[in-house]
Write a structure and sequence with these properties.
Elements lengths: L17 E4 L5 H12 L6 H10 L1 E2 L2 E2 L2 E5 L2 E9 L22 E9 L8 H16 L3 E7 L6 H8 L3 E6 L4 H6 L15 E7 L2
Length: about 200
């Protein structure tokens, strides 16, 4: 998900970006960036801590952050294949691999002022490498089809993601019951989500 945001960070080159596995000292920066870009209530300290622990399998952490001059400018939260269960938004019978060997790409966020630096693709590549080491055969994501220019769908497709199914009202429950404030819907979120899978080579 993205929405327009301007800040004081100058545009760096790709070599200026540093990447690191997500750690508790990154939480404040991740919360600030995530809620600013994705909408208020998208992340809380409690939910982020849960997501952090769900990224681990056999001591390997699959969630990453991107930093520029010490500031969090991107992150990817990923659930290890052993740390989540498919729900009603998952078309398990359509998945081309063993469902127990599928990780979940929960969230990818990049400061829109720094898009074009390859941050999103690098975060996905790093997360993919770690989930493969954890034993995953593929990764599932629910892609926001309300992003400007449908950039989220185009980004995940460019990186090899294939469409499994479309889900109207994917985030409506979160907007009604969990305090999520969609950045594009004037009331409760009516955005459509695309269930997409990236099968690992």
């Amino acid at each position: 998900m993205t929405k327009n945001h301007q800040n004081s960070v100058s545009t760096p080159s790709a070599k200026d970006i540093e990447y690191s596995p997500l750690a508790p000292e990154h939480f404040n920066g991740v919360l600030s960036l995530g809620n600013r870009i994705q909408g208020d209530g998208y992340l809380t300290h409690f939910t982020l801590e849960e997501m952090y622990h769900q990224g681990f399998h056999n001591g390997i952490n699959a969630s990453y952050v991107a930093m520029y001059k010490g500031e969090i400018v991107g992150f990817r939260l990923t659930y290890a294949h052993s740390q989540w269960q498919p729900d009603e938004w998952c078309s398990v019978k359509k998945w081309p691999v063993d469902p127990t060997r599928v990780c979940y790409f929960k969230c990818n966020t990049v400061d829109d002022h720094l898009q074009g630096c390859g941050i999103g693709s690098t975060l996905l590549a790093l997360a993919t490498e770690k989930t493969k080491q954890q034993g995953a055969l593929a990764g599932l994501a629910h892609i926001w089809l309300g992003s400007p220019g449908n950039s989220a769908f185009r980004y995940f497709s460019k990186n090899g993601g294939e469409l499994i199914a479309r889900h109207p009202g994917k985030w409506r429950y979160a907007s009604i019951h969990e305090g999520y404030d969609c950045p594009v819907c004037p009331g409760f979120c009516e955005c459509e989500g695309a269930e997409m899978m990236l099968v690992f080579p």
